[in-house]
Amino acid sequence: MAEIATGVLSSLLPKLGRLLEEEYKLQRRVKGDIAFLKAELESMQAALLKVSQAPIDQRPDIQVKLWARDVRDLSYDIEDSTDKFLVRLETRSPTKKNSFFMGFTGRSFSLLTKAKTRHSIATRVKLIKSLVREVCERRDRYRVDSSVANNQPVGIATTIDSLRLSALYKKATELVGTEDNSDELVRRLTAEGGEASKQQLKIVSVVGFGGLGKTTIASIVYEKLKVEFDCGAFVSVSLTPNMVKILKNLLYQLNKGKHGNIMNEAFWSEPQLIIELREILRDKRYFIVVDDIWDYSVWETIRYALIENGNGSKIITTTRNAHVANQIGGVYSLIPLSLIHSRKLFHQRIYGDEDKSLPSHLAEVSDIILNKCGGIPLAIITIAGILASKKGMTHEYWSKVSRSMGTGLEDSPQIQKMRRILSLSYYDLPPHLKTCLLYLGLFPEDHDITREYLIWKWVGEAFVRKEHGKSLYEVGENYLDELISKGMVKPVEFDGCSKATTCRVHDMVLDLITSLSNDEHFLTAVGGQQLMPLPSKVRRLSLQTGNAEDVRLLSTVSFTHVRSVTVFDQALNLLPGISCFQVLRALDLSDCEQVDNHRFKGICKLFHLRYLCLRRTSVTEVPKQIGNLQFLQVLDISLTEVKMLPSTFVQLTQLVYLNVSACTRLPDGFGKLECLQNFPGITVSYPSMLHDLGRLTELRNLKIIKFIQCGENYDEPFLECLSNLVSLEKLEVNYYLGGPDFSLSSSLSPGPQRVYSIDMLRSTFYAVPRWMSSLSCLSALEITIRTLAVQDFEVLGKIPSLTDLYVWVLEPTGERPERLAIDSRYPFRCLSVFRFWSYGMEVVFSRGAMPNLQTLDLDFQVRKTKDLGGNFYFGLENLPLLQRVPVKIDCYCTEPGEVEAAEAALQKGVDMNPNKPTLNILKVCTIFLL
Q1: What's the whole-model pTM score?
Q2: CA Rg value for the chain
Q3: How many angstroms separate the CA atoms of 187 and 311, rounded?
Q4: How far is the first Cα of the chain from the last one, in angstroms, to the nearest whole number?
Q5: pLDDT tens-digit profile of 800-854?
Q6: 59-68, 608-617, 629-638: lowest mean pLDDT where?
Q7: Separation between Cα atoms, residue 930 and residue 927, nearest integer Å
Q8: Which helix (H) or strand (E) covers residue 636, if one does?
Q9: Which of 19, 65, 339, 554 lies 20 to 30 Å from 36, alpha-carbon distance?
């Protein structure tokens, strides 16, 4: 019911509205029927929205669920029909104008075709109307509206603080309540008996059910002890392991120097990998963690590779299966958190401070909640995430949450207990987030999901709603951040702004998602954890393996209702012919090498496609039939050998995201793609391309891969292009050689006034362009300039919102020049991070310089700096808020004592700073010391 409330109906209703528009010239009676359908479906949506947002302890009865199922299926079918109507009505008439007779014939044929189309639509709408009447009568018969009328919707207002996501996650899962378990695990690994015992391979198998923190404890111990070993690795196995991939991952982590590219090498077999691993580990003292083992046979295979060499190596394994743990040996059973640690974790998630106490009116009910969580960290984080997101914490709501948790964890099997706890978090999500969360069920277990990839898939599936003043990608980012903050999605890697760049679904959350998805017939995963038999109607299909049994199962399924297909690894052989997918909207065949030019031509017959990903396939040519895909919004053909896009490509006027390879040339007139919002890779081959690029006024994110040198100057066209990109927010420009005119231009009118990030580090400019000082929203800038001058800091210092600056200077300004003093003349009001790279350190910080600077990252060559200034005084004591000073010094061609002098000068400057910042020095090229 979550998806029907906002997924199908929310996209269907606007389409019915479009059919009522005058341009389609439908008969008056047909328009009346469509208006009836729209009104009835709006009424159904309102009723279902109440059900989906009802308090957890007031879930709907079976009659409401059955009615909701009927509405869902009917809405799917209506949307399929509506899309077919729109495709047929919007088919363009012939455009040839070479003769009057041909033009007249073409127009007559078009009119005749459209007349038949409208008659067909009228017949179909009449049938749909009768079906809707039946569902409406069933609603009245079972008094569905009255059954949901007493349910008061529970909305959630979430405040997302993306800068705290990483720190909060670490505190909530790695620190609170882990000390005892991690200390005990360390003790078991390092416990010493006789001399012979020290040299033996030691294995500890950590066992516990999902959500108890096995991976977390193993990770903490691994990070703590790995420095004591020659090499180490941390690999996950999961429920359906790919042994070749796991063994490759082990090789990569254990010897990146030799096997840095092994993940892309196809010739390795399982026996070869085992032999290579044994050879690498033969004389090494290693430390390896093998996480999430489900079957002992998998461990046996890995164990063959982990040679016992008498060097005192250590292995940690984790598993949910006590029988597997006993077979592996060295069992260490994790126990749930104590009430004291549970309370600390709970407070950490609520307040960000484990030592802060709850108000007295919530203390008692919080202990009841914690007792029901049973010391399971994942359950505690999930429930606390719900409670913390409320605007104000009331005893009434907390009591309602407590009551909804049922009779407690101790009264039912562990998996069911956890699912009940997690379902509480699911039901408290707003409907659109429920849809987005269920969609994560298409990914295999332990699959790392890239942020950008996931968000554009949501967009292509029409899960992301338009919001005023925001791009679709921004709205999708907010969705993902909310799911992370709720504890439903786990961040894995972060960028410099503490935003999750990759994420993963916790195993127990995936278990919940799969269960709910099966109940609502939302998504079918073949080869994963999908329950069999397959449903009669498959709407979304995820192919995760290519087993013969899966092929047999799929042979019994009709694909006429499938609207989304995602294929992982080499499962493409499961798919039937493209012609079977009559209403397909989203197709993801990324990494499928079997996809070639012939298959691409077939794909171009899927007129309903909104999302198409052929990334890293064998496609080398885009067929001219690509113009058929009039509804396409997201297209990714990057990392292919496509050299040129056909002229018909410019007909894809609904595109909002386009990703192509660096070698791909766009056709003339691509500026017609006026809806494009994200363009993460374009090669500019000639200046006139910039005219088309400047017409893409909806662009929010633009990456120019390179400018091909063609003997013409790009400066003026490029500046004109930037002046027109009024919606641009993020810009990256690689391999551009900007001339003096580019740097001297003082303004862009109107220009990208919304841009907040510019990366020009891989380009080169004579000076910092003056127009940058007029960009009021610019907060992050990376730039490379030939030589450093006073004018550069005058421009940079005036950028009002600049917080993060990276300047790379290529050449010294002359023979033994005076160092450039940075002082209060250059405001730098907001700058907190300054990274400065120069062969010779050409700046010195005077009193009043960069008053808010917290991180100063320096990179210079000792010999060049010595030649420029004669000493290594940089004025570090004049930066009052300085906290961190990471420094990389190049020791090439230095004389005895010069490196030590540089280190001493840096340390002296830090010691003189009243804020006592941390100094970290990295020396490189020390082999060249004289």
Answers
A1: 0.72
A2: 31
A3: 18
A4: 74
A5: 999 999 999 988 776 555 678 898 888 898 999 999 998 877 789 999 899 999 9
A6: 59-68
A7: 9
A8: strand 634-637
A9: 65
